[in-house]
Design a protein that fits this description.
The chain is mainly alpha-helical. About 70% of the residues lie in helices and about 10% in strands. The longest helix is centred in the C-terminal third of the chain and has 37 residues.
């Protein structure tokens, strides 16, 4: 009498033949490319904001901003660098950079998809091989 475990062991011990398939990528859906590039751009925007915050916190903790403030005050009469470089200003600038990157990367994803779809008409597409294990 064989159990289910014995049957599964026999199945796993058999060597399966792997089948290879070669496919040609001839079209990239425009809206799928836009959505995917937007998702990647959102991730980059989050990384940008976090990196701006961390860089500011490190510069503030090491007193480099205060030393730069003293240096600027020595050169320019009464100019305060700390009034220009504060946490709200750094995060606002980081947000502007993140939003601009979001727009640029999304548009670039759409442009690349369009260029690929045009190039496929000349080159025939990208040949990709797959195998099943």
């Amino acid at each position: 009498m064989s159990t289910v475990a014995d049957k599964l062991a026999k199945k796993s011990s058999r060597k399966t033949s792997s089948k290879q398939v070669r496919l040609r990528l001839v079209y990239i859906d425009f809206w799928s490319a836009v959505k995917l590039s937007f998702l990647g751009a959102v991730a980059i925007a989050i990384v940008t904001l976090v990196s701006f915050l961390l860089i500011y916190l490190v510069l503030d903790a090491t007193q480099l901003i205060a030393k730069a403030d003293e240096f600027v005050a020595g050169i320019a009469d009464g100019a305060k660098l700390s009034s220009i470089i504060g946490l709200p200003q750094v995060l606002a600038f980081g947000s502007v950079v993140a939003i601009l990157n979001l727009i640029v990367f999304t548009v670039l994803g759409a442009i690349v998809a369009g260029i690929y779809n045009l190039a496929v008409k000349v080159t025939g597409g990208l040949l990709v091989g797959f195998t099943s294990n």
